[in-house]
Amino acid sequence: MGTKSILVIHGPNLNMLGTREPQHYGSQTLADIDQRLQALARADQVRLETFQSNAEAEIIEKIHALSVNRVDYIIINPAAFTHTSIAIRDAISAVKVPFIEVHLSNVHARESFRHHSYFSDIATAVICGLGAEGYFAAYRYIQQL
Hints:
With about 140 residues, the protein is α/β, with parallel strands linked by helices. It has helices at about 20-25, 30-45, 55-65, 85-95, 135-145, and strands at about 5-10, 45-50, 75, 100-105, 125-130. Helix 3 runs parallel beside helix 4.
């Protein structure tokens, strides 16, 4: 069957993890999360790439590239783009790669504008409120497929 491949996409402001609102997002940095994901992938012989951008267009271009450089799965934390980006939703729909939507905080226990996602209805699953563990839960699920 070959090696599984996963692209992890981190949306805007996630580069500030560890210092940005730790009561919502925890104290782990994005580098901590990415290093742990990479360690899991190495141990499982999974090809895993992580990508973070604060720019919607860069995220869209990264997703569009999957039409040529396919992956088996996407784990995406769209962050604030969850509530605003039809363009990222359309890009994911266009490449037809299954994905899991991850949020560090429980978006449903926060401001009402965070309750709507442009991604949830087309995602395989949505994980929210588990902090960084949400990424690892998504990874473990993909490994079971």
